[in-house]
Design brief:
This protein is mainly β and about 120 residues long. About 0% of the residues lie in helices and about 60% in strands.
């Protein structure tokens, strides 16, 4: 298993193959991932621990966004082109991310850690 430390938490790569990727992602309370989108990659997030706010902005609805509050046992699928951000709001959040395997397909729009 590969572990990738991030300024907001960490990723544990549980499975990576040509067809799909599964990661266990931890987001520290009060931290957030980059505001980003993917051109090809499709992903589903399934919350295991904590409460995750998921910021979603659809490309056809510029300037408008929704926040989905996900509790343990809840999930959300993000299609290519959808702008999104994961935010740890209550407790350290742990979720599984199952996605297609385009791991370099990340276009960052904003980032608290100056990685844009």
């Amino acid at each position: 298993m590969k572990v990738v430390d991030k300024p907001w938490g960490k990723e544990e790569w549980l499975e990576v193959n040509d067809n799909y990727t599964v990661k266990r992602i931890s987001v520290l309370q009060g931290h957030q991932c980059s505001l980003q989108y993917h051109e090809i990659k499709k992903e589903t997030m399934f919350v295991l621990e904590g409460i995750l706010n998921l910021y979603i902005e659809y490309p056809w609805d510029k300037g408008r966004h929704t926040i989905h509050k996900l509790h343990p046992g809840q999930y959300f699928t993000i299609n290519p082109g959808v702008i999104h951000r994961s935010i740890g709001v209550e407790g350290d959040v742990v979720f599984l991310e199952s996605s297609t395997s385009e791991l370099d397909d990340v276009i960052r729009i904003e980032d608290d850690y100056k990685r844009v």
